Amino acid sequence: MSLDVPPELLAQAESGDVDEAEFVECIRTSLPYAWDLIAELVVRLEVDGGEFADNQVPPPDEQARGQLLRALASDAIKGALERHHGVKLAFQNCHRVGVFPAGAEASDRYAKFTSVRGQLLNQSPLLRDC
Predict the structure, then answer these.
(1) Do you know which Pfam families this protein is assigned to (predicted)?
(2) Between helices 75-85 and 20-30, what is the axis angle to 10°?
(3) What pLDDT does residue 2 have?
(4) Which of 57, 64, 72, 128 would bridge with 91, disulfide CB 3.0–4.6 Å?
(5) What percent of the chain is modeled with pLDDT above 90?
(6) Model pLDDT for residues 43-74, shown as the tens digit of each residue
(7) If 0-12 CB within 10 Å is exposed, 13-18 middle and 19+ buried, where does residue 27 land?
(8) Cα–Cα distance between 64 and 8 in angstroms, integer?
(9) Across all residues in the chain, what is the average pLDDT?
(10) Average pLDDT of span 91-117
(11) Which of 49, 122, 60 is nearest to 90 (CA)?
């Protein structure tokens, strides 16, 4: 299971209405490495004021890597994180997350980060099995 879903939140889902704030809290507690990394990048984007913030350091272990993959491979989780932080997330490989201002999909920097060229240039033999 990718999230540790509290019984109350599961009951909400079963009845049809889910409180997004409670879902976000479930993400925060279930995927702490992914949460902390994204929150750190959001702060860096806000403080630096650049076009985007990203990380270049691979996760410290397989558990952290798995959390990051689960957070960004799920449209629901990724979307909730984007709405909560007011950003657009992009993901290149097992560890490189880009945090862009909301609405950045039309920017050149976002297009470069998410392009085939960007993906190929970000490859490394060290990351082959990540």
Answers:
(1) KH_NucS_shadow (PF20704)
(2) 110
(3) 81
(4) 72
(5) 65
(6) 999 999 889 999 988 899 999 999 999 999 99
(7) buried
(8) 26
(9) 87
(10) 82
(11) 122
Backbone CA torsion sign across 69, 24, 61, 89 = positive
Domain ranges within the chain, ordered by starting residue: 32-127
Give the DSSP letter of residue 60. S
Tokens representing 85 are: 């932080």
How many beta carbons lie within 10 A of that of residue 130, not counting itself?
13
Locate all alpha helices (DSSP H) within 19-87, ordered by sequence.
20-30, 32-48, 62-73, 75-85
Q: What are phi and psi of 94, to 5 degrees?
A: -65, -10
Q: Which residue has the tokens 């990724």?
A: 78
pTM metric for this prediction: 0.87
Residue with tokens 């409180």: 19
Residues composing the chain: 130
